[in-house]
Design a protein that fits this description.
The complex is a heterodimer of chains A (286) and B (282).
Chain A (H helix, E strand, L loop, with lengths): L1 H23 E3 L11 E2 L27 H15 L26 E5 L3 E6 L6 E4 L16 E7 L9 E7 L21 E9 L2 E12 L7 E8 L19 E4 L2 E5 L5 E3 L18
Parallel strand pairs in A: 5-6
Antiparallel strand pairs in A: 2-10, 3-4, 4-5, 6-7, 7-8, 8-9, 9-10, 11-12, 12-13
Chain B lengths: L1 H23 E3 L10 E2 L24 H15 L26 E5 L3 E6 L4 E6 L16 E7 L9 E7 L21 E8 L6 E9 L7 E9 L18 E4 L2 E5 L5 E2 L19
Parallel strand pairs in B: 5-6
Antiparallel strand pairs in B: 2-10, 3-4, 4-5, 6-7, 7-8, 8-9, 9-10, 11-12, 12-13
Classes of the chains: A alpha+beta (286), B alpha+beta (282).
Amino acid sequence: MLHRSLIGTVALAAGLAFIAADAQAFDQSKYPDWTGAWRRIATPGVTGQPGSAQPKRLGPPQQAPLTPEAEAIMRTSMADQAKGGQGNYPTYICIPPGMPRTMNPYGAMEIVITPHTTHMFMEHIHDSRRIHTDGRDWPKEIKPTLVGYAIGKWLDTDGDGKFDTLEIESRGMRGPRAFDATGMPLHADNKTIVKERISLDKSNANVMLNDITTFDSSLTRPWAIIKRYGRNPNEKFSWHEENCPEGNAHVEIQGQGYFLSGDGHLMPSQKDQPPPDLRHFKQSAK
Amino acid sequence: MRCNRWTISIALAAALIVANAAASAHDETKYPDWSGQWRRPQGVGIQWDPSKPLGPTQQAPLTPEYQKVFEASLADQKAGGQGGDPTYTCIPPGMPRAMTVVFPMEIVILPQLTYILQEYVPMIRRVYTDGRDFPPDEEPAFLGYSIGKWVDEDNDGKFDVLEIETRNMKGPRSFDASGIPLHADNETVVKERIWLDKTNKDLLRNEITTIDNALTRPWTVLKTYRRDLNAKTIWFEYVCAEGNRHVVVGKNNYFISGDGYLMPTRKDQAPPDLKFFNQPSR
């Protein structure tokens, strides 16, 4: 009898300890393994800066459902860029790209999952995101930011007791923002809503899928695309500190983009571009 | 007999489940609660040593050579320049200055890594607590490379102090906005001990010791951060480059006026050389 009582006591104690451990611990095993460095997956033959819709080239090949007004802004931007200007491309002076463009991503991305927040750290102009997963409602007032305010919800879509998908909605963005480097614009009214569903590819745990839909007044309809990010499990990755302003040779004066030459002088960025107005200087320029 | 074997099996299974849960869980109770938003206490400025005013009264233990560098910085700032403070062009302050916490900070503790997130510039510090050594060929960074170790000082089974050592920084860096310089050789080592105040869990202490060749001795300061207890914490986005009026052309700093024109930052400053322009200036 004593023997059975002892065994029963052990069983009860172990069960209680299990419950206690679960209550105090953040059980990472319930969440997918999204550790490591994630980068956009390049498409052979598609070079240059990443477009919003992978694997298409930038600009018109993106086939973005732009309104006629937004299409005109994009084409004006591209024409200015063809002449050496920056067009509608605010990131050249290190303004962060904001949402949704930050999810291209330009550099490497790290995702850190904690009980109440999922952090996305970007190594490009440090436009990192906080995704609140604590069940909160949208605040009555959101201070607009370039990346917006994001609320997320974890889903167990296959019913195996483990989360596999993060649904995110982002609101409260401000501008200026563009979808990509051509200057494909988001509307100046900044009423953008971005919805995402992020999960690992079921056939390859080193590929992450982001089903991202943008609702914006520059679009004739919601624009849904799937972005793919990859990680190299064999890579001994080191987080490289990227500082956009360091060595940035772009200078903006009077709304005009200029450039700093290799020997540190101001120079034009377009043919026949006049120099800046020096009215505030007493001395004349050399 | 069957009943005994069955009972033993249940007991064993339960024990195994406990062990498994412990192995896959991050036991947050073992770590201090450093959650939330941390700010400088009210009334504390952005000088390096919070107990002393900004400038020469910091009494930085500078070598004679770097004392001259500092004095030149102060003189330049008095004349309208930026002196030895490189951050006016949005270059990150780096370590150790990042820990002045100009704008709010968040600390995220995970088993292998503690993240220190700064809203100023902004910066992401990764403090590796997985027992690794300093890598031999890591690319230098303004924030350097940080390795940390959790310490249970009072032996209550719970960590309470994070000791950090940071190396491998690059420059230019200064201690604060007055331009107190760090040595151009970038051989700085920064050691920190971070812990919650024992009498007030909403105050975080950081004892920071900087070892640098611009100094005659290690320089130790104590910084304090207060936890924002506002239920509606706001993480505002600081974009340094946005609206930054400073323009550097060559070695000269200029300014963009309110009406968007280039202007001097000091008396009788000459405009930039426009030799690369075909057309004359308007």
